[in-house]
Amino acid sequence: MTLSKRLVWHGLVVAVLLVLLYPVVWLVSTSFKPATEVISTLALLPRDPTGDNYAEVFDGVGEFGVLHYFWNSVVISVGAVVGNVLSCSLAAYAFGRLHFRGRGPMFGFMMITIMLPQHVVLIPQYVIFQQMDMVNTFWPLVLPKFLATDAFFIFLMVQFIRSLPRELDEAATLDGCGPVGVFRHVILPLLRPALITTAIFTFIWTWNDFFSQLIYLNDPEKFTLPLALQLFIDQATQSAFGPMFAMSVLALLPIGLFFLAFQRFLVDGVATSGLKG
Amino acid sequence: MTQSVLTRPPVPADPPPTPAARGRRRRGQGVAYLFLSPWIIGAALLTIGPMVASLYLSFTDYDLFEAPTWIGVDNYVTMFTGDERFWHAAWTTTEYVLVSVPLKLGLALAVAMLLNRARKGVGLYRSAFYAPSLLGASVSVALAWRAMFSTDGTVDRVLSSVGLDLGGWVDQPQYALLTLVALAVWQFGAPMVIFLAGLKQVPRELYEAAAIDGAGPGRRFLSVTLPMLSPVILFNLVLETIHAFQAFTGAFVVSSGRGGPSDSTLLYPLYLYQRGFTDFRMGYASAMAWVLLVVVAVLTALVFRSARRWVFYAGENR
């Protein structure tokens, strides 16, 4: 491209980006506006920036400060990450490398569950967790991850494992490794990129998840950030908009940081595997 | 960029076994099931069992507190003949899917082609376009949406200033669904990244050959880009459609869980949620879930069937 063409190109791309990212910028900037400015002005930048909205949110939304909800979200998201990384890598190794009766049909079934709308298992799952007295605890949100229910990540890792040279397994076997040894010393270390992709996406999706948390958590003490925000909207009058946006920004903060730190990783993960994101 | 699993040849599952490997294999069987045990337990207890159970529940009246009573196909009959809100939710969801998916994919393809024009330095732009896909599913962004599309919100003020006095979108039945469509389209980054990976795989010689044959940009798009990209289009289409049928958070947040105004944002999953977890009609909600599953499955099958006509795999003889 010639220089002028390149300038037009950059101009066009940046213009589209500005429109696209406007809502996020608006959200962040509004969270720093004093109550009088929140709804009265269209100006993007606060005329009189203030941290009051944040102070109010740390003081308390309902009975608890924002850190309480933040911590609940962290516990659930980290639990989900550990569960998915462990259970999906185990299953992926079996599907990708080991031989056993029923592998074909099981793999096929696993692939189908990737597409399955969760509504079709929702109610009986709820009944199961209710019978086990686990409603209103974090277990229904974390336990399924330890049972490899996020089949997409199994598929992601199977694809990855199949692309690793088999000679490595065979060399390890000659050195006396059994399947467990091959998994620990050969596959697991090489699988790291896929494990990281799985961990990041599990964290972000669990962090953002609203539906399951809405269904399983109903005591404000157990609320996560998305639920606390929802509680907030229903109680909020217009004067409380500022703090609400401050809390929204805090809820997006970890995702933003993950994105800045791992953007290359995330985007390549989507490009190579078709993660929906 | 690494090659996409969508466009590279599938990785072969296994080379033929050597005699030594066959011996190890028999020993390996038990270990394999050990590795698979979390998945097997999960598949049995959290997928297959619940699927069978919800099919059963769909033929019962069940409020979660008393044992389910068998009522045959009553739930389905009520749904199809006596429940206006069901039809309304089904139609609203259809509208939502039919409008949001093509817009989202169209925009994704357009921006992918724009980015693909540059040789290098695309990485940062690509990431920036992808950001909304990570943020968009959150309650935070849905909240921002609700505020921006309310009366005197940003959108209202900008439109009013150019003489389009529509009022707040989220408060009016005729526009409320559009806010959800906008929220979905805003997240076009994920399919865009996939399109971009697909575009990188199109051999340049094809464009050069087409240009030599006198094909203009439009012709090259129709005869080279679209066919070469069709497997990726199929993939995005299926994924986004399934995804769109299950949209929930935006509709819930924008309407405080009610699906209003006048049920205009009552998407199917939201109505299912209300039936099950507000009215405690679990049997009815299960029936709704099965109808959703069947519709999504049939649609996916139809798309794959039609794909034989329009999806082109490189190396295939035509």
TrEMBL record, chain A:
<dbReference type="GO" id="GO:0055085">
    <property type="term" value="P:transmembrane transport"/>
</dbReference>
<feature type="transmembrane region" description="Helical">
    <location>
        <begin position="7"/>
        <end position="28"/>
    </location>
</feature>
<keyword id="KW-1003">Cell membrane</keyword>
<keyword id="KW-0812">Transmembrane</keyword>
<keyword id="KW-0472">Membrane</keyword>
<feature type="transmembrane region" description="Helical">
    <location>
        <begin position="141"/>
        <end position="161"/>
    </location>
</feature>
<feature type="transmembrane region" description="Helical">
    <location>
        <begin position="240"/>
        <end position="262"/>
    </location>
</feature>
<feature type="transmembrane region" description="Helical">
    <location>
        <begin position="69"/>
        <end position="95"/>
    </location>
</feature>
<dbReference type="InterPro" id="IPR035906">
    <property type="entry name" value="MetI-like_sf"/>
</dbReference>
<dbReference type="GO" id="GO:0005886">
    <property type="term" value="C:plasma membrane"/>
</dbReference>
<dbReference type="InterPro" id="IPR000515">
    <property type="entry name" value="MetI-like"/>
</dbReference>
<keyword id="KW-0813">Transport</keyword>
<dbReference type="Pfam" id="PF00528">
    <property type="entry name" value="BPD_transp_1"/>
</dbReference>
<keyword id="KW-1133">Transmembrane helix</keyword>
<feature type="transmembrane region" description="Helical">
    <location>
        <begin position="107"/>
        <end position="129"/>
    </location>
</feature>
<protein>
    <submittedName>
        <fullName>Multiple sugar transport system permease protein</fullName>
    </submittedName>
</protein>
<feature type="transmembrane region" description="Helical">
    <location>
        <begin position="182"/>
        <end position="207"/>
    </location>
</feature>
<feature type="domain" description="ABC transmembrane type-1">
    <location>
        <begin position="70"/>
        <end position="262"/>
    </location>
</feature>
<keyword id="KW-0762">Sugar transport</keyword>
<comment type="similarity">
    <text>Belongs to the binding-protein-dependent transport system permease family.</text>
</comment>
TrEMBL record, chain B:
<keyword id="KW-1003">Cell membrane</keyword>
<dbReference type="InterPro" id="IPR000515">
    <property type="entry name" value="MetI-like"/>
</dbReference>
<dbReference type="GO" id="GO:0005886">
    <property type="term" value="C:plasma membrane"/>
</dbReference>
<keyword id="KW-0812">Transmembrane</keyword>
<feature type="compositionally biased region" description="Pro residues">
    <location>
        <begin position="9"/>
        <end position="19"/>
    </location>
</feature>
<feature type="transmembrane region" description="Helical">
    <location>
        <begin position="31"/>
        <end position="57"/>
    </location>
</feature>
<keyword id="KW-0472">Membrane</keyword>
<feature type="transmembrane region" description="Helical">
    <location>
        <begin position="96"/>
        <end position="115"/>
    </location>
</feature>
<dbReference type="InterPro" id="IPR035906">
    <property type="entry name" value="MetI-like_sf"/>
</dbReference>
<dbReference type="Pfam" id="PF00528">
    <property type="entry name" value="BPD_transp_1"/>
</dbReference>
<feature type="transmembrane region" description="Helical">
    <location>
        <begin position="282"/>
        <end position="304"/>
    </location>
</feature>
<protein>
    <submittedName>
        <fullName>Multiple sugar transport system permease protein</fullName>
    </submittedName>
</protein>
<feature type="domain" description="ABC transmembrane type-1">
    <location>
        <begin position="90"/>
        <end position="303"/>
    </location>
</feature>
<dbReference type="InterPro" id="IPR051393">
    <property type="entry name" value="ABC_transporter_permease"/>
</dbReference>
<feature type="transmembrane region" description="Helical">
    <location>
        <begin position="127"/>
        <end position="148"/>
    </location>
</feature>
<comment type="similarity">
    <text>Belongs to the binding-protein-dependent transport system permease family.</text>
</comment>
<keyword id="KW-0813">Transport</keyword>
<feature type="region of interest" description="Disordered">
    <location>
        <begin position="1"/>
        <end position="25"/>
    </location>
</feature>
<feature type="transmembrane region" description="Helical">
    <location>
        <begin position="175"/>
        <end position="199"/>
    </location>
</feature>
<dbReference type="GO" id="GO:0055085">
    <property type="term" value="P:transmembrane transport"/>
</dbReference>
<feature type="transmembrane region" description="Helical">
    <location>
        <begin position="220"/>
        <end position="239"/>
    </location>
</feature>
<keyword id="KW-0762">Sugar transport</keyword>
